[in-house]
Structure formats: structure tokens, C-alpha cells
Amino acid sequence: MTARPAGPPGLRRFREPPPPETPRCEMCAEPLEERHGHVVNVQTRALLCTCRGCSLVMPGSGPGARYRGVPERHLLLPGFRLTAADWEALQIPVRAAFFFPHSVLGRYVAFYPSPAGAAESLLPLDAWDDVLAANPEAPRPLPDVEAYLVDRGPERLTCHLVPIDACYELVGLVRLHWKGFHGGPEAWRAIDGFFAEIRARAEAEAGVYGEGRRA
Ligand SMILES: [Zn+2]
Ligand SMILES: [Zn+2]
Hints:
Blueprint: H1 9-15, E1 37-41, E2 47-50, H2 52-55, E3 67-69, E4 75-76, H3 84-90, E5 96-102, E6 107-114, E7 117-120, H4 126-133, E8 146-152, E9 157-163, H5 164-177, H6 184-204
Antiparallel strand pairs: 1-2, 1-3, 4-9, 5-6, 5-8, 6-7, 8-9
Helix pairs in contact: 5-6
The chain binds zinc ion (ZN) (2 copies).
């Protein structure tokens, strides 16, 4: 049943706010659920909000593929060998950073969250190559769409393998909540909550690799 607004139809638009724009899939224009998928445009690095069908665009569907669907796996890598000295060598100025294979550049790139958005680490990543070499059996992120996300928590370093959109979610949280020089309690609560959620998802997916080889 439709409610018929009273009064002459010509006046309706002055009284009723326009309906909020329904978010739509940026590839096929289908209306989107709040929980939706993402696709990376490999050339521009843009992350597109997509429906489930479009986010199933197969990753690595041929070299030069322009779009890659972001997969959903979340893995905890407790056996990942990454020491405090490695972290020092990487010179990441903050608590967390993500590293992913960039298919166009043909190498890993590193980013970290900052109050202004994602900041790229411009240091040469030789130190990261050493970390990879020390972890030959660790599952590798799919180019452009997955990343190693490292959290230098108060007690130890933790490495996760997550979808790239999760990294940008963390970037968004930092950008939204960070205050002053040290972030403030709200920012730290958001960051801790984010990592707790990643851990819970990995455990729910049974995505824990290398348990027992904790350094
Ligand atoms: Zn779509
Ligand atoms: Zn989205």
C-alpha cells in the first residue's frame, strides 16, 4: 500500500526530502547491501564497491587483467618470522603496516595508516625481501587484492594475511579517530577492536597457519 501525500502534487517536492541515494554496484549498478564486495582497478588502484557477483571477478584472470575481485580469506600467521630487528629495519613509523604485491610494478609496496590516509613507505624494501625469504612456506597474498598486515602490538608482532579492503578499513578508522600526536583512547580502542575482529574472522574461517612455531 502506498501512502498518498495530501495536497497538490506539485508541492510535494518542497516538503519531502529526496530519497537517499541507494548505493549501487560500481560495475553493474545493482543496488548494494551494506556488507558488499570490492574490486580493485589494477591500473588506478581504486577500490570499487561491488555486488557479490562482480566481486567474484576472478583474481588473476590472465595477465593484464584490469579488475581483480577482492577475496574474503583472513589468515593469522603466528609462525611468521618477523623480529623486532626486522621491524626496525623497515622503519615504519607507526604500529601497523601492510605489504602487498603490486602487479604493475612487479614488486611489494608498503603502506601504513596515518591521520591523513594511507601513507606509502618510500624506503627501499630490501628488509622486506629478507622477511619474505625467511618465510618461504607462508601463504602469499594475491597481487593487488590481498596484503600482509603487520601489527606491532604492545607484546609482539603479529602478521595477518587479509583482503586489501580490510587494510583500507583500518586506514579509515585511523583517519576518523586519530587525535593529536598519540591518537587518543578512542583511536586505540578502534584499532584494538579492528584487530580483534580480524582475529575472530580468521579463527572462524580456521585460517591459522604455522601455530606452534611462534618465535
Ligand atoms: Zn555488480
Ligand atoms: Zn564498499
